[in-house]
Amino acid sequence: MNVIAVDDKQEMSEKASAILFNEIKQNPELVLGVATGGTPTDTYDKLVEKVLAASLDLSKITTVNLDEYVGLAREHEESYWYYIYTHLYEPLGLSPDRALVPYGLSDDLQEECIRYEKSIEKVGGIDLQLLGVGRNGHIGFNEPGTPFESKTHLVELTDSTRQANARFFEHKEEVPTRAITVGISTIMKSRSILLLASGEEKAEPVNALLRGDVGEKWPVTVLNQHPSVTLVVTKDALEIEEDLDHDQ
Ligand code: F6R
């Protein structure tokens, strides 16, 4: 694993956006797996700045969202479709024709998971997967205990994940209880992975990963079995606080 330790989120976002920019420059038809949440927002903003400044054409890339809440319409401000649209496609003036996102309002969610997995295969799999990590170690919405061989599936979100994401909603009760997530085996098939972590609340999963552990208790540790991972991590996410409180 290539570990890049940086001072703060600003530097993390600068490094990550530069990596993404170069990858897209080298392969204008890149299939980019995209994470949502708080971690990569500035990374997308900086990527958009770089792309516009260089007049790079992103119209041929495909983005593959990692996950989507069940029960939110695409137009809902907290849906992950809306997130990637407003952070990437809209500021670049691109139509989201090549944005793959699970459909969280499907009448048949199991069928939707199968369809989504096939749609990733159809575009040739993910070239570069951008990942954040949950404080309980989840990647995508693969919560602790998810089998490593999992494909795209339906998940019940843990209380700690709903609590962590409550900051994006007015009330915690509004955080959906279920989501569709790309599975761990799908993530592991990506040709390379760029993992971002910032903030002391990520220190436990980051340290589990860096110890070289591999186990379902901390899903992120599966990345120790991937041949091409770059971790861009802030210093505070590397330091374990003695009294760090987490639940799963
Ligand atoms: C989001 C996702 C999640 C987040 C994780 C961290 O698409 O897949 O795994 O990366 O929950 O979230 P933040 O960045 O908000 O701390």
Main sheet: strands, sense, barrel: 7 strands, parallel
Sheet-strand content, in percent, reads 15-25%
- Helicity range: 25-40%
What coarse outline follows from CA principal-axis ratios?
globular
Question: Which small molecules are bound?
Answer: fructose -6-phosphate
Q: Which regions have little confidence, pLDDT < 50, spanning 5+ residues? A: none
Q: Structural class, from helix and strand content? A: alpha/beta
Count of all domains: 1
- Mean pLDDT comes to 95
CA-based gyration radius: 17 Å
Order of helices and strands: EHEHEEHEHEEHEHEHE
Strand tally is 10
Q: Span from first to last CA?
A: 26 Å
CATH architecture: 3-Layer(aba) Sandwich
Put simply, the count of helices is 7
In spatial order, strands of the major sheet run 1-10-9-6-2-3-5
Q: Regarding CATH, which class?
A: Alpha Beta
Fold-level CATH name: Rossmann fold
Overview of the structural elements:
The protein is α/β, with parallel strands linked by helices and 248 residues long. The chain has one domain (2-237): Rossmann fold. Helices cover 32% and strands 17% of the residues. The protein has helices spanning 9-26, 41-54, 80-92, 109-122, 159-165, 184-188, 203-210; strands at 2-6, 31-34, 62-65, 67-69, 99-100, 128-131, 153-156, 178-181, 192-197, 229-234. Strand 9 (192-197), helix 7 (203-210) and strand 10 (229-234) form a beta-alpha-beta unit. Bound molecules: fructose -6-phosphate. Residues 35-39, 66-67, 132-134, 138-141 line the site of fructose -6-phosphate (F6R).
